[in-house]
Each structure stands twice: as C-alpha cells, then as structure tokens.
Design goal:
Blueprint lengths: L2 H22 L4 E3 L5 E3 L3 E2 L5 E2 L3 E3 L40 E2 L5 E2 L6 E3 L4 E4 L4 E4 L3 E2 L5 E2 L12 E5 H7 L14 E5 L3 E2 L5 E2 L3 E3 L14 E8 L20 E7 L5 E3 L3 E2 L4 H9 L11 E9 L9 E2 L29 E2 L10 E2 L10 E2 L5 E9 L10 E3 L19 E6 L8 E2 L3 E11 L9 E3 L3 H11 L24 E7 L9 E8 L16 E4 L14 E5 L3 E4 L5 E3 L6 E5 L39 E6 L13 E8 L4 E2 H4 L16 E2 L2 E5 L20 E7 L6 E2 L1 E3 L4 E4 L4 E4 L3 E2 L5 E2 L5
Antiparallel strand pairs: 1-2, 3-4, 5-8, 6-7, 9-10, 11-12, 13-14, 15-16, 17-47, 18-27, 18-29, 19-20, 19-21, 19-28, 22-27, 23-26, 24-25, 30-46, 31-32, 31-36, 33-34, 33-36, 34-35, 37-45, 38-39, 39-44, 40-41, 40-45, 41-44, 42-43, 48-49, 50-51
Length: 753
C-alpha cells in the first residue's frame, strides 16, 4: 500500500472521529484533539447540551459543600472547581469572599452572584429560571410584589424600593436590594401590602368633644405675589402681548393623599371665586358651605414707612416680625409674619424682605416691591391632617399662565403655609389642666418677653402639677408638685385655647418655662416672689388684645433640644431647613457642620459629642430661639421631618463670612461646611431666620427642638369611621356602632343619647 493511500485512510478516520466529537458537543461547543467538548458560553455538560441560566445577586448566600471532595470545607478566600461550566473562574465551598474592581478583598460582603439569584431552579433544556414563590424576573432577581403576576390588586403600581423611596419626598435608597425588593405604591383610597383594602372615610370622634375640647382644622395661607408695584401696570398677566388676565389654580390634597386641581382662577379673584373653584371639585371633595376665606391685598411699596430691603447674605440678625397685617378687629384672621423670601437663584445671595423694625446697617435697600393677594383658607369640611396645597401657575403647558408684566422687572412669587393652625389626626396635648385658666401678658416696661398671668396662687400650683416632668428624668423633679421648671434643653410645650370660643378654634402651641428670678412688679399678677411662667414664643391672641382667658392643655410628651451647636436657617414659607454651625470647633478637630440626623458613619461619628437627640425621618420638631424670644414666631408649627439629606458643599464658613461677620474659630480659619445639611418638612415655615455669625456669641440661635409625643397624652380623634364604627375594607364603608350615624359615623343620634 503506498504512502498516499495510507495518509488518505488516516485522514478519513480522523475526520470521522472529529465529526463524531463535534456531534457529541451538540453543536454548542468545540471538540478538542482529546475528544473533549469546550462549550460555548451559557452551555454546559460533557456534551454541551445543557443551558446555563441567568445569574443575579443572591437574595440569600449559601455554602456549596465539599465540591472538590477533599473531606473538608476550604475557606471563603480559597476558590475551587476552576474552569467549571457554571463557575469558569472557580467558586468557594463556604460563603464567598468578594473583591472590588481594584481586586481589594471585601471582608464584609454578601449577596454574591448566583444562578437564578439562589431563589429558583434552572431548567437546563431552556436556560430559564423557575422561580420560587414570591420571586420573579429572568434571574429571579426580584422579590415579587404581592399578588404577582397580577400585582397590587389592580389598585397600585409595583415599584422597587428605590423608586418607593424617591416617591417619598425624594428620599434615597441605595443598598444592595435597591432593585430587588419590591412593594406596592397604592392608589389613593387603597392600602395594604397588595392594595386590596379600601380606606373608609375619616371623621371626628363625637366623644372627643366636651365642654372645653376644640378641633384643629387646617388653615392655609395662599400668597399670590408680584415684585411689580401697583399703578397703571397690572400686577399679573397671562404673559401675552395684549396683557390678558393671568390665571392660577390650587392643587388640593384630600385625607387619602389624592390631589385635585381646581379650574383656573383669575389673578386678583375674590374669596367667593376661590371658594367656588374649590367647591366645584368633583366627588364632593370639599363640601359646600364649609370652606371659609379671608383676603388680604398687599401693596408693600405704597407705604414709605415700610421699606423693601434685601441683603446679600444671611448672616445678620433681624429683629422685625411684621408685615402682612390685617385689621386687628378681625379676631380670627389677623396675619403677622416675618416675610423673608428666598427667591434668588440660590438661597444665599438675595432676599425679598419686608421688615418693619430697625435693622443692622448691612442691609441694602433696593427698589423692588412686593404686592399681591393673600388668601387665608380654613377647611371646616375636611377634618384631620391635610397635606399642604400647592399653587399651579403652568396651566398652558410649559408656558406660565401667571406672569408679572414684561414692562417691569417683575417676578411672580407663590407661597403656601400654615401659621400654627395645622390640621391634625392626633391630639398630642389631650391632658386638660382642670381648674386653671390663664392670660397672656404682652411685654411691658422692664419685661422683654411674654408670660402667663391672670391666675390665682392655687391655679399657679395646679399648673405646676399639670406640667410635670420635662426631661425624661423624674429623679430630678422638685417639690410636692413633682415637676420641672423647664430649661433650654427641655422646655415645656402646651396648648392654649380660648375659654370662650367655638369648637373649631384649635388653639395655639406655646413653649413655656418657669423663671424663678422673674419676680415682683411687672411680672405675673401674683407678685408672690416665686417666679413667672415665661413664654418662649411671643404669642399674639387672635383679637390682638390680651384680655382673653385661656384653657391650658399639657402633655406627658417631651420637647427636647437636639443640639446647642447646630443652627437652623430657613426662609419664609419654605419646606427646607438648613442646618449649619458657624461658631464652633473644639480642639481644632474636624469642624462639626451642624448635621443632627441620626445617620452615622466612620467619618462623622464624632458629631454625637454635640448632639443630645438626633433627628430621623418621621420625627416631629419645631424651631425656636432661646436667647432672643422676641425673634420667635408668635405661632409655632410642629413640623415632621420628611427627608434629611446632605447636599454638595457650596460654601465654607471662612469663604461665606468675611471680615467682621466671620467669627474665627480658635483663631484658625477652619473651612467648615455651610448649609450642606437640609431637613425637608411637611409644612412650610411660617417664619424666617438668618444665621447669627455676626453676633458676639458662642451659641447657635435658632435651634431644632424635637418633640417626643407620649401615648398617655395622645388621643386620635380623627380616624376611619370616627372611632365609632367598623371599617369594611372590602367596600370602604363604615358599619357604625349603635347610636352613631353618617358615612363616617361622626354623628351621634340624639335618640341614643
């Protein structure tokens, strides 16, 4: 046999063998010279006939056992079974120890990539994951929303936890499961994990009302303002060349959180027009005849004695606390505010401000004026805590329907706020101090603050007992009344309600402390030498006279100073409170930047040297100035922190405050962060405050006080079915207890009584 024939036969045999090997690889791999299959990506098995399923972050890590059959389990940093089909780079027998992109070992790590995310089994014929109940996705990478695949019962939207956080006032969630953990964002009127439960109508518990209890209904002030002065030119137009009437609308939020937009309201509309637009909302959202409105028309520029001022910075002390003041004869709707509007390109460069008192010379007078309309709206027909309404001026697509005239350097400013009269579901001051009524005394000669008066000695002692403990520590209580005086760290907070009033007068919050050095003439009416109950907020009664008697409601809750090193600065009618510290640094360590949030890490653990009580999302707080009580708002709000965030550094202390306005810290120009920590509130502020670095003081002035409510002093008087019925969550209707009626069970039958 010649050599050519032999070579031909060998080639034929080898070709047959290679063809068999190639067929054995199922067409999904390459046969080697050793008759072994090297599988294509995402295929496995000896003949490459099995599919590899998709990988995802493991919901739960699992050890894999003795993969190399060595008789023991190797450590998490020792890879085994290299070049396997599923783990081409090897894997570990115990929990994995991962590396970052720079190959640095991550010792505290979890949720390693696993096939089907460790929450499903792989179908090797199709390469698809069969997920366990409660998980879905091509790699079982998501924890399913309830009811999957018909998630959220058709009454909500299935979202990731990151999306849910962002929808909640822009909060941020960036942990490992940000795209893995799912939840339902229910439509208004529905609740429950799967949005299958209907919400019943809420009402006021009829048993809450007695001879002295009153209801806090929501009162909102809506300002439609312009920097254009009055005169031949109108304040507002629609922006077209022929200067037609401008329009705005009000977005109202009901008790379920659903928003309702009114029809367009013409600029300068009367109260009747505004109320009609609200009552025209569908589904009887705002019951007719139960919304009250008062209109204040303001032309600040018309009064020469009330100059419009602005200053480039917010570092100086302001002492004025007026304008926008209606006739004092109107008991219920007097308006008196510190209008410091932050309306420039940033919160640091300019203000529109309407002061009435003398200010420091650093304020530069400018020609800009404010004029417009302020509507005070009281919603009697919508009890409970309501979200703050919003003014909408973009009613024509992207083009505003309410603008200031083009002939002037006009700017439209819209604001909404509440002034100590926020609606509530819970009465946190449900302890009536029986047998005590008080008066509010205005400052007089020799007295620089408001205080309580008009009581007898026995009433004064009863009030001490009613106030009780103020600081979480009963061991330091004093005398037979078992109470605390109150201090800058733990003052008392009470609610004052006029003795002769209507059920809809919810009263006002007041912060008090007992000054045993304030004795003698000019203080309380007793002059008994024991001291005086000082008011931290200079509360002004609704009738602008100090003749009313007030019932006193106390609480076992606690008002606590968060930090005496952290200072709050905020503009009028703003939902952003900036926390900073421009006065302090100890031992030249990293400067405390005023952050009072409870979040702590390796780089800011030191801050708790300066914080007594940190603030979390959902906590209630108020803003007060202890050293200068006359700078506090007459009416204080209790705010809820809806978001605490850190923003990029815009200013350092030494760059922001220069010359005499910059207080050097330990004679060192420390580059402290300025206004990088922000608290987002549920209601807009009814006051404004500048930081006080220009003052010769080592104390922050406007501080955050956290309110800890007490269960024993709290009564939920606005509730589904008014606490007088059972809510049928399948239909959203109330089954009232005997003797109660209406769709919210809020009416008591006279026959039953």
């Amino acid at each position: 046999m010649n050599h050519f024939l032999i070579l031909t036969i060998i080639a034929a045999v080898l070709g047959y063998v290679n063809a068999e090997c190639a067929n054995a690889c199922s067409g999904h791999g390459k046969c080697t010279s050793y008759d072994m299959c090297i599988c294509n990506r995402n295929w496995q098995a000896n003949d490459c006939s099995e599919r590899v399923c998709q990988f995802g972050l493991a919901h739960v890590d699992t050890p894999k056992g003795d993969l190399d059959q060595s008789g023991g389990l190797s450590g998490p940093d020792h890879p085994v079974v290299e070049n396997s089909f599923v783990y081409p780079y090897g894997t570990t027998e115990q929990f994995p120890q991962m590396e970052d992109s720079n190959l640095n070992v991550l010792f505290n790590s979890a949720h390693y990539y696993m096939e089907c995310s460790n929450k499903g089994s792989c179908d090797r014929t199709t390469g698809e994951c069969t997920c366990y109940d409660g998980y879905d996705g091509v790699a079982c990478q998501r924890a399913s929303c309830p009811g999957y695949p018909n998630s959220c019962s058709g009454h909500g939207v299935c979202k990731t936890i990151r999306q849910l956080a962002a929808a909640d006032n822009g909060n941020v969630y960036e942990l490992w499961d940000r795209d893995a953990t799912m939840g339902c964002d229910c439509d208004a009127g529905y609740h429950g994990p799967d949005c299958s439960l209907r919400q019943c109508k809420s009402g006021i518990d009829p048993l809450y009302l007695d001879d002295v209890s009153t209801i806090k209904y929501s009162i909102f002030d809506v300002a439609i303002l312009s920097t254009t002065t009055t005169g031949p030119t109108p304040l507002f137009t629609n922006g077209e060349y022929d200067a037609k009437t401008g329009y705005w609308a009000l977005r109202f939020f009901d008790s379920f959180g659903e928003d309702w937009l009114t029809a367009p309201i013409p600029a300068g509309a009367s109260c009747s027009v505004v109320v009609a637009a609200l009552e025209a909302l569908p589904n009887n959202v705002i019951p007719p005849g139960q919304t009250y409105c008062t209109l204040t028309m303001e032309n600040i520029g018309a009064a020469a004695t009330i100059p419009e001022s602005a200053f480039h910075g917010i570092d100086a002390q302001h002492t004025g606390r007026d304008h926008f003041h209606q006739s004092p004869g109107n008991r219920e709707y007097q308006i008196s505010y510190n209008m410091s509007l932050w309306e420039a390109d940033s919160a640091y460069t300019a203000f529109y401000w309407t002061p009435i008192a003398t200010h420091q010379s650093s304020y530069a007078s400018i020609s800009t004026k404010l004029a417009g309309y302020i509507y005070r709206l009281k919603f009697y027909g919508n009890p409970g805590a309501l979200a703050e309404p919003e003014v909408e001026i973009y009613l024509d697509g992207k083009r505003p329907s309410l603008v200031a005239p083009q002939s002037a350097t006009g700017k439209v400013i819209t604001k909404v706020w509440t002034d100590g009269q926020q609606g509530e579901d819970n009465d946190y001051f449900a302890d009536h101090c029986d047998g005590v009524t008080v008066n509010i005394n205005a400052p007089s000669t020799g007295v620089a603050y408001h205080f309580l008066t008009g009581f007898t000695t026995s009433e004064k002692n009863l009030l001490k007992a009613c106030l009780g403990n103020s600081d979480f520590d009963t061991s330091n209580n004093i005398d037979v009344y078992n109470w605390d005086h109150g201090s800058i760290y733990y003052p008392h907070i009470i609610k004052l309600v006029r003795t002769v009033t209507t059920y809809s007068d919810g009263g006002y919050y007041a912060v008090v402390w007992f000054d045993n050095t304030a004795v003698g003439a000019g203080f309380d009416n007793l002059n008994d030498g024991t001291g005086t109950f000082r008011l931290l907020n200079p509360i002004n009664p609704p009738d602008a006279f100090y003749t009313d008697n007030y019932e006193v409601y106390t609480t076992q809750g606690t008002l606590a100073l968060t930090s005496n090193r952290s200072e709050a600065t905020f503009g009028f009618a703003s939902k952003s409170v900036y926390m900073t510290n421009v006065t302090y640094d100890e031992n030249n360590e990293a400067a405390f930047d005023g952050d009072i949030s409870c979040e702590v890490g390796a780089n800011n653990a030191y801050k708790f040297k300066y914080i007594f009580h940190c603030l979390n999302k959902g906590d209630m707080f108020t803003l007060l100035n202890w050293e200068y009580p006359t700078l506090n708002p007459p009416h204080i709000n209790l705010y809820t922190a809806e978001r605490l965030m850190h923003t990029d550094l815009l200013w350092s202390n030494n760059a922001r405050f220069t010359g005499s306005n910059y207080k050097k810290i330990n004679n060192v120009n420390m580059g402290m962060h300025y206004m990088t920590h922000v608290i987002t509130t549920d209601y807009s502020t009814n006051w404004a405050a500048a930081v006080q670095s220009a003052l010769n003081t080592n104390q922050a002035l406007f501080r955050v006080y956290k309110f800890f409510p007490a269960v024993a002093s709290t009564y939920q008087y606005v509730a589904p079915c008014s606490n007088r019925g059972i809510c049928d969550t399948s239909t959203g209707t109330c089954t009232c207890f005997p003797g109660y009626t209406s769709d919210s069970c809020s009416e008591q039958s006279s026959i039953a009584i």
